[in-house]
Fold this sequence. Notes:
- The complex is a heterodimer.
- By secondary structure, chain A is mostly beta strands.
- Chain A is built from no helices and eleven strands.
- By secondary structure, chain B is an all-beta fold.
- Chain B has strands at 3-5, 10-14, 19-21, 24-26, 32-38, 45-49, 60-61, 72-74, 83-90, 99-101, 105-110.
- In chain B, strands 2, 5, 6, 9, 10 and 11 form a six-stranded mixed β-sheet that branches. A three-stranded antiparallel β-sheet of chain B has the order 3-8-7, with no helix packed on it. In chain B, strands 1-4 form a two-stranded antiparallel sheet.
- Chain B is globular, with a radius of gyration of 13 Å.
- At the A-B interface, strand 4, strand 5, strand 9 and strand 10 of A face strand 5, strand 6 and strand 10 of B.
Amino acid sequence: KAGVTQTPRYLIKTRGQQVTLSCSPISGHRSVSWYQQTPGQGLQFLFEYFSETQRNKGNFPGRFSGRQFSNSRSEMNVSTLELGDSALYLCASSLGDNYSPLHFGNGTRLTVT
Amino acid sequence: AQRVTQPEKLLSVFKGAPVELKCNYSYSGSPELFWYVQYSRQRLQLLLRHISRESIKGFTADLNKGETSFHLKKPFAQEEDSAMYYCALSGQGGSGDKLTFGTGTRLAVRP
């Protein structure tokens, strides 16, 4: 099975712009979660989608949003970028039932200048 | 609120020495706990979860509810164990889809 695929691998944007990141889950996985990883804050949960519905949400401002399509692929959007949004954004997929492990992608490294 | 604490940023041991990576948690309900590992140039992956009571690559972890701890242990460290280790907690019925991670401990095993 192909693993979780995230595109693009690297992005450089300027403050005020918006960005869209993409995640293709493992075939058959219906849950997709997004995490932000920074040296200072570590791994922080953004949100989780299951069958096209947002099921869980972390403590991030409304500038961070996401969606999931019928094929379980997911996108994350960040609007009005700030310098502090520079981070590695990780996507993880799972079956979405109890106790299923998360399978992570390699991440998209976003740099905001 | 749920919180995971990994007090050590770096743990350096010699090959063959015992390893204990500490993890303490704060959660009012009944948590599900996991250890994830990230080897150099590889993606983050599940190492083990307490519900399975399994030993993976010689590592074990026991949930101690009295001490709210889930320390990761291995009796004899190997060089290939060098990696970043994250303890994680799920308070959502163990689905693992909303995990709270600790800040991670880098394990360096010296020859």
